[in-house]
Amino acid sequence: MKLSEKFNELFKSAYELGIEEIEVFVQTSEDFSVKIYEKEIDKYSLSEEFGISVRGKYNNKMGYAYSEKFEEDDIQLLVKSVQENALIIDSEDEYEIYGGSEEYKEIETYNSSLDQVNQQDKIDLAKELELEIYRIDSRVKKVNYSLYGEGNGKTILKNTKGLELKEKSNMAYLYASIIIEDGEGSKTASKHQINNDFSKFDYKKLAKDVVNEGVSKIGSKPVSTGNYEIILRNDAMGDLFSTFLSNFSAENVQKDLSALKGKIGELIASEKITLIDNPHMINGIASKAYDGEGVATKSKKIIENGVLKTYFHNLKTAKKDGIKTTGNAYKSSYKGTLGIAPSNLYIQSGDLKLEEMISEVKNGLVITDLSGLHSGVNSLSGQFSLLAEGFYFENGDIVHPVNQITIAGNFYDLIKDIKIIGSDLEFGMPSGGSWIGTPSIAIGKLMVAGE
């Protein structure tokens, strides 16, 4: 039986059980990764996955079911599970099966050339990365990770309202993690590149970047306890910002789990801050034409010149607030229920390079690494206390690297106190369907606990 015939049989079976509306989500994926250690393959993984999820309205409740198989014998089991699960739901939330948008933007999320690259070439790339790292500096004690990974996936979203959408995407990453030994102790550093065009990977640049990062930490020492002007480098700012991202979800707002409840139209950050969610970004890792419910996506400003313009909405949360969805419904996999997530989310860049920001601020600390983001942060209150590393600078010049310090403050005060936004916008590794990017940001003073 063809896939289209299975869909029709499923819809027919659902109708016979009294399920009013039904939607199927089919996901197939292939993942490959190789880790090199001391010139040899340390770990190798090649996997394929198929899954289908079904959700449908029965007695005005939405039931869910999923399976790793979709043969004729599975159809009855799936629709019966949807019916049974709907019967035990006690939530009063109203869910909707979406009939489709008028127009969907054409977005290139799949690069066929990546799949055509010989697997040995991918392994060799990871090997060359490790070798290059050792070539650059004799102080590299160990390359923890020289890793190449990639994944590609296909999805089909189809329902009884006539919606049928298909998406195909792929991406790859090159990652390095090292240990530098300088006689005083060990320093760690890691860097990555991410793309869906194999020809754009530059292992020599990645090797140079990660070694420079590690070497720059040699001679690290704490600073005296006190209040310091702070520059959060792009990667550190990205890590901190991601920790508070859940506050922008309308679902959390409606559950009283967000500090931003009731703040639409208010100045919540420095007027220098504009936060953009752009699912149509060219070469965006999280670019997509439609969200997890089949709603056409659109670019939007979440914060504009410091003013909160909107939360992230799906159909359910938008209906509660009496507005249109923002197209941010997210389904992590066929096993997961619908949630909310941004796509390519970033703080709009400023004009100054990091070096120019240091010259402008003159005296303070550049924070490059933060630890304890899960335990040292209260997302609701905004309070944080985090282990940090970075550099101390005076009169616009770096004096020495810094470690064994703790920075403490309040995130919501921090984003109001932004003085300078850098030009060095950088995106981290994608997570939870999102790709988060931030430039370096200079804020006012934070309390620093040192020696």
Describe the structure.
By secondary structure, the protein is an alpha+beta fold. Among the domains are: 89 residues, PmbA/TldD fold, CATH 3.30.2290; 224 residues, no CATH class. It is built from ten helices and 20 strands. The strands form four sheets. Strands 3-2-1-4-5-6 form a six-stranded antiparallel sheet. A six-stranded mixed sheet has the order 10-9-8-13-19-18, with helices on one face. 41% of the residues are buried.
For the structure shown, list the relevant keywords.
single chain; 451 residues; PmbA/TldD fold; 6-stranded antiparallel β-sheet; 6-stranded mixed β-sheet
What's the gist of this structure?
The protein has ten helices and 20 strands. It has helices spanning 3-16, 72-87, 112-115, 119-136, 203-215, 234-243, 250-254, 315-321, 354-361, 411-416, and strands at residues 21-37, 40-58, 61-67, 140-159, 164-181, 186-195, 226-232, 275-277, 300-304, 307-308, 329-330, 339-340, 344-347, 364-371, 383-394, 397-410, 420-421, 426-427, 435-438, 441-449. The strands form four sheets. Strands 3-2-1-4-5-6 form a six-stranded antiparallel β-sheet.
Strand % is 35-45%
Would you tell me the overall average pLDDT?
96
User: Counting H and I runs of at least 4 residues, what is the number of helices?
Assistant: 10
Judged by helices, strands and strand pairing, the structural class is alpha+beta
> Which parts are unreliable, with pLDDT below 50 for 5 consecutive residues or more?
none
What is the string of SSEs from the N terminus onward? HEEEHHHEEEHEHHEEEHEEEHEEEHEEEE
Q: Give the strand order of the largest sheet, numbering strands 1, 2, ... along the chain.
A: 3-2-1-4-5-6
The helix fraction, in percent, is 10-25%
Q: Sheet with the most strands?
A: 6 strands, antiparallel
Shape: globular
- What is the strand tally? 20
Query: Rounded to an integer, what's the Rg over CA atoms?
Result: 24 Å
**Spatial gap, N to C terminus:** 71 Å
